[in-house]
Every structure is written in structure tokens, then in C-alpha cells.
Design brief:
The protein has 104 residues and is mainly β. The protein has no helices and 8 strands. Helices cover 0% and strands 41% of the residues. Strand 1 and strand 2 form a beta hairpin. The chain is rod-shaped. This is Fibronectin type-III domain-containing protein.
């Protein structure tokens, strides 16, 4: 019964039908399959499982440093966009040489 599940109407172009599924939860698996209805009933494709994720990384702005002493420095920054996912860690990475990174 297709009325118990969420559906989206597809557009048809050159024999292929397409749709955009919106409002999905981040980091969630969805079972998706195509369907078509005619006068004799409903036909279905095999289903696939798709997991949503973030398409963008976190955006950080307003990086600033101040109040320095011979061996300390105060630093601050602002997250302006979370990339579609909950921020699970915040911090600063530093090095005396090169561009520091938390990624290996």
C-alpha cells in the first residue's frame, strides 16, 4: 500500500523518470524503489538502500588571535555553517612549521 510510505511524483524525460527526495534526515538509511501505476495495478523496481550524509564540510570564519605573552596565545573562531551535520568536536590545531591539520 503506497499510501503508508512517503512518495514523490517523478518527471519523465527521454523514457527516464527522476525525482528529488527532500527533507531527509542526516546520516540515515532509506530504502528506495521506483514504482509506476497503470490500469492493471502497480509495478515496482528492486529496492536500494541509500544512506544520507553531509555534502559540505564545516565552514569556520572569524579566526582571531590575541593577548599573547612569551609562551601563550588566545585564539577564537566561529562556525558559520555546520555542513548539515551536528558539530561533535571543536578545537585548534597548531604547528611551528607548515599548515597544521587534524586529518592524516
Amino acid at each position: 500500500d503506497i499510501t503508508r510510505n512517503k512518495t514523490v511524483t517523478a518527471t519523465l524525460k527521454d523514457g527516464v523518470f527522476q525525482a528529488n527526495l527532500t527533507g531527509l534526515a542526516y546520516n540515515t538509511s532509506y530504502h528506495v524503489r521506483a514504482y509506476a501505476v497503470n490500469g492493471k495495478g502497480v509495478g515496482y523496481s528492486a529496492y536500494i538502500i541509500i544512506k544520507t550524509g553531509s555534502s559540505a564540510k564545516v565552514t569556520i570564519v572569524n579566526m582571531a588571535a590575541g593577548n599573547s605573552s612569551p609562551s601563550t596565545l588566545d585564539v577564537s573562531a566561529t562556525v558559520s555553517a555546520d555542513g548539515g551535520a551536528e558539530i561533535t568536536e571543536r578545537g585548534f590545531v597548531y604547528s611551528s612549521k607548515g599548515t597544521p591539520s587534524v586529518e592524516e
